[in-house]
Predict the structure.
Amino acid sequence: MKTVCCATYEGIEAKIVQVESTLTKGLPSFSIVGMASASISEARERVKSALLSNEFTFPPKRITINLSPSDVKKEGSQFDLSIALMIALDTSEDDLSEWFVFGELGHL
């Protein structure tokens, strides 16, 4: 499992969120768990589209993204870049667990 940090707001406080990824063999699927709102669920399509449009071969694996801690509500698109990074760097040996990544994905 790979991890990178991000953040979200809870009231007026920023809360650290760990974006954890697991890519395993199995029927290809892409799920995001951890008290994610509808906008986070839509991230699957935004991330996949952005990676494919940048000539990245989307892995035919079972992809599970966990946004932790699960008791903090997550909404918005600020997790998209973190999720895309976790998928793109799945085979990398780099340790990103101390990194904070923020950003949205878009198309030109």
User: Anything to note?
Assistant: The radius of gyration is 13 Å.
